[in-house]
Amino acid sequence: MKSFPKTTMEDVARKAGISEGCLYSYYKNTYEILYDLVAYHKYNIIEKINSIINMHGKFDTSDIMVNNIIDMILKEKEIREIYIIFFN
């Protein structure tokens, strides 16, 4: 697997099974795609945080919250791959 900075729009289009022109009609570059992926998954993380706060209260949740978010990242392949790409 290429590192994110070396991934091209051609690579993404090929993997997605669409034409490069089609991909460019939605995104200018791979960074815009990454931004949308992170934004899409941000909602799930916020929902998880709200769920933890509702279950455990607002002030004693930091350890529980961190553990649950890490568990979610490790369990969800797509989220895990985004984090790997984003932080490499």
Structural features, described:
It is elongated and about 50 Å long. Helix content is 76%, strand content 0%. Helix 1 packs across helix 2 and helix 3 (30-56) packs across helix 4. The protein is built from five helices and no strands. The protein has helices at residues 9-16, 20-26, 30-56, 62-75, 77-87. The model has no long low-confidence stretch (mean pLDDT 80). It has one domain (4-87). With 88 residues, the protein is mainly α. The two termini are 12 Å apart.
Q: Strand portion, in percent?
A: under 5%
Please trace the helix and strand order, writing H or E for each element: HHHHH
**Total of domains:** 1
Briefly note the structural class of the backbone: mainly alpha
Topology readout:
Layout: H1 9-16, H2 20-26, H3 30-56, H4 62-75, H5 77-87
Helix pairs in contact: 1-2, 3-4, 4-5
Keywords:
single chain; 88 residues; mainly alpha; 76% helix
